[in-house]
Design a protein that fits this description.
six-stranded parallel β-sheet; about 350 residues; Rossmann fold; alpha/beta
Length: about 350
């Protein structure tokens, strides 16, 4: 019997090396155990090339045209829309195409529990939470000094400027900083270069790096900073936690949904002085760093590949079972377990 064909539509493919691609690649691996899987960019005309049994679209706005065309051509085909940061926290409220995607999709997926509150009430019953995952790495026992890493392309949503200003404020401290990410906005790239010069080697921006190399640098760090102004459920938080690295995060909904309401490592979004103070405290106070590490370790069970794989397969299996002429009924609201 031929395998059902799942079409994954992602605005980021391998060359982009971003969160969308990491999610699409992982879900492809999970689904290929049972299904034929194709990953494509959200271009017009997909309905002329493919007749999938189900589709998974990442990003409500950027995949909107492809989702609409396929849904119109194949009205009984189930569709899963995975909501990332900019669409969940901005586009669905400001862009008509993104809002239409919510209505079209058979099921919606958010990447952390706080994301459900961002959706209109009418769509929450068809929404589930699937936490992303990363394989565990052992932190480097030979870590020396105090090293902080930020992983994120230089674009406004990641707010690298706040991190850069915090680095400048801490240049007299025995702390080193590494910044990994491509230069998507020239003004931010120029700021990173100026910060590297002015901090006399305390801060280094090394540009885009392969995923495996980035994880190795991460596990050799003491602290990972995420300063974003919006996130759907950041892969870098998961990769830090599963590498035994504590996290300092902006206090946005997407980060709180990942780390928990009571996490001690938040700073007010956009506040470089508060971020610098928190990094400085973590570097000077081993007990505080240990407490952050304990809180991160308590979340680790949420982010295992086995858990994500089971949730993805269950979601797709359910969607295929209710497709065709059978009446559609919503599967259980949450495919993921509660927080530990």
């Amino acid at each position: 019997m031929a395998k059902s064909h799942i079409l994954i539509i992602s605005p980021g493919l391998a060359k982009a090396n971003n969160g969308n691609w990491q999610t699409a690649a992982r879900w492809s691996r999970f689904l290929r155990e049972k299904y034929q899987v194709t990953c494509v960019a959200p271009v017009a005309g997909l309905a002329d090339t493919f007749r999938p049994d189900a589709i998974i679209a990442l990003h409500a706005r950027r995949s909107a045209i492809a989702l609409a065309e396929l849904s119109q051509r194949f009205p009984m085909m189930p569709s899963i829309l995975l909501l990332t940061g900019t669409d969940l926290y901005r586009d669905i409220n400001t862009d008509d195409d993104a809002a239409h995607s919510l209505a079209l999709a058979t099921r919606l997926v958010v990447l952390q529990a706080a994301g459900i509150a961002e959706l209109p009430d009418a769509y929450r019953s068809k929404t589930c939470v699937i936490h992303q995952s990363a394989r565990s790495l052992t932190p480097d026992p030979a870590r020396r000094g105090f090293h902080v890493i930020m992983i994120g392309h230089l674009r406004a949503e990641k707010d690298p400027a706040t991190f850069l200003h915090a680095c400048a404020l801490l240049q007299q401290e025995p702390i080193t900083f590494t910044h990994i990410g491509g230069a998507l906005e020239p003004g931010l790239a120029a700021l990173a270069e100026r910060t590297a010069r002015s901090t006399a080697g305390h801060y280094r921006w090394i540009g885009n790096q392969p995923h495996a190399a980035t994880r190795q640098r991460l596990k050799r760090s003491h602290l990972m900073v995420i300063s974003s102004i919006m996130e759907g459920g950041a892969n870098v938080i998961i990769e830090a936690i599963t590498s035994g690295v504590a996290v300092i995060a902006s206090d946005i909904s997407g980060n709180i949904g990942m780390l928990g309401d009571d996490y001690l490592g938040y700073f007010p979004v956009g506040d470089a002085a508060a971020l610098a103070a928190l990094i400085g405290r973590t570097a000077r106070d081993p007990a505080f760093l240990a407490r952050l590490q304990q809180q991160c370790d308590a979340r680790r069970a949420l982010f295992t590949p086995e858990r994500e794989r089971a949730a993805v397969l269950q979601l797709v299996d359910n969607c295929l079972q209710i497709s065709g002429s059978a009446p559609r009924r919503p599967p259980p609201n949450h495919l993921s377990q509660g927080s530990p």
